[in-house]
């Protein structure tokens, strides 16, 4: 591993630590009696996952691709914020670092938009702006549902991923009408997030409609359907993304139906994790074989074992959500355990694939 990639490995470590801590905190929130390093850890589950883990990964991916030195401030700040939040040193400092990382992310996309004006860059830049707003609304120690952070953080995740998929779908020659449909979908989502600050239930429902619209657009126009007919890695990635889009649509429907229950409970758990686990983690699992080689400098050759963590992720989430909505709490809790097992199996399978591959990536071409 070259010094360049070793530096990336050091930068990705805080994201990994935040992920593992968030998974542990999530089990506690589901009611499992497990030892905790601090009483505040369960309340840090969301911030650790969104800012400490996902935002750090997004920042590192962009910085690694662009090779702009100042761009590395995004993953450095977000990662450090996650570690400080976990250590309980200072919540205000942790929030400030998370905010700084999101502002650098906005600056990255602003520079990219100036150099390459396009809808997909604008969408990802808008997603970074939603992350900034979410961090401004986030008050450590206050429940996330009270500060209305969730719609903004969800918007960040959806716009970032959708923007990347829009970039890859350019080969299909999407015309202005189809691109207008994309803009309309994300516009409804952002409008819902804004409205939720004034009228929570109506805003959540509008944002839910935006989630459904975005999912339907991606299901219709993403190149995954073409790749699903292929074999090997292309099919695995395509199936990962298609499953994620269905969970995004399901999450939107849940937001529409249970907007009045946007408080801790089985419905709230289903509304959040259909998106955060079903959509986001399915995207992460699908894209890992083409993102990690460019970031860490190792190949991740496709292995049939990849389907084990993908299948476990979706089975466990279905068990968790169905159990929660049906009032069958043991099923919900065990579904959460298997969610964690799926993520750990994903990490293990990728590590095994990396160990069996050459040190340098042959290609980082996306599918």
Which SSEs are present, and which pair or pack?
Elements: H1 3-29, H2 45-66, H3 73-87, H4 91-115, H5 119-137, H6 144-147, H7 150-168, H8 176-196, H9 200-221, H10 224-228, H11 232-257, H12 266-296, H13 306-325, H14 329-355
What do these coordinates show?
- There is one protein chain.
- This protein is mostly helical.
- The protein folds into three domains: 1-113, no CATH class; 118-222; 231-367, no CATH class.
- The protein has 14 helices and no strands.
- Helix 1 packs antiparallel against helix 14 (329-355).
- 51% of the residues are buried.
- The model is unreliable at 361-367 (pLDDT under 50).
- If you compute it from the alpha carbons, what radius of gyration comes out, rounded to the nearest whole angstrom? 19 Å
Strand percentage? under 5%
Proportion of residues in helical segments: over 70%
Q: In total, how many beta strands?
A: 0
The parts where pLDDT drops under 50 for at least 5 residues are: 361-367
Please tell me the overall pLDDT. 91
End-to-end distance, in Å? 25 Å
Tertiary shape: globular
Given the helix and strand composition, which structural class is it? mainly alpha
The total domain count is 3
Strand-and-helix sequence, N→C?
HHHHHHHHHHHHHH
* Largest beta-sheet details: none
The number of helical segments is 14
